[in-house]
Amino acid sequence: MANSDPTKRVAFYLRVSTGEQTTANQRRELEEVANRAGWAVTDVYEDAGISGAKGRNGRPAFDQMLKDATARQFDMIAAWAVDRLGRSLQDLVHFLDDLRSLRVDLYLHQQRLDTSTPSGRALFQMLGVFAEFERSMISERVKAGLARTDKKLGRPSGRPHKKAKEVLRLRVQGHSIREIASTLRMGVNSVHKIVSADRNPA
User: Fold this and answer.
1) Could you tell me which CATH number the domain at 9-116 has?
2) Which of 17, 176, 182, 196 is catalytic?
């Protein structure tokens, strides 16, 4: 159950996947929780008709919420359920690790998760270990991928394509080729060439 804290500033995150759905029920239930707990709801971020499979760049309200979290505009994020935040375990771990580092708490209504409680804080600490492990694994995979890309593209060792490292890092994190191209402002063919060289070394 959420802790009663009249000074806690809370932001709601609401999301539905299709235009035929509505966030009204999510908002109503979260407002009931906030009223009982005495939270001050300062912001409401809504991504309507947007799939949770999309990354941060594909969910404008989610992206703005994280920017505002960095600016410490609120103390906690409340969502109706964990699947409103995303569909990828990897993305969820990144999100929770970001909140942990910013000291922003999270409340998930359906899962009855409140990271301002002792058990919730323990979860944050555990996720920090997994996030660090994942960063190490990504670093090793990117290094190996750069070596394969150098060989495939015929580049001297240590002189890979100037954006190859970022391409491979985003790819390891699960982003699509088009998302990577958009994020790095590269051509889709250039991204595809780097990814293919990593996947199919000579």
Assistant:
1) 3.40.50.1390
2) 17
51 is catalytic: no
Q: Could you tell me the residue ranges of all domains in the chain?
A: 9-116, 128-199
Cβ atoms < 10 Å from Cβ of 197: 24
- Contact in structure between 77 and 13 (CB atoms under 8 Å): yes
Q: What is the pLDDT of residues 123-134, one digit of tens each?
A: 766 655 555 555
φ, ψ for residue 167, nearest 5 deg: -60, -50
Q: Is the pTM of this model over 0.70?
A: no
Q: Give CA–CA dist 81/116, Å, rounded.
A: 17
- pLDDT tens string 146-156: 666 665 555 54
> How many C-beta atoms lie closer than 10 Å to residue 83's C-beta?
15
Percentage of the residues of the chain whose pLDDT score is greater than 90: 30
What pLDDT was estimated at residue 70?
Answer: 94
Alpha-carbon gap, residue 195 to 135, rounded angstroms:
20
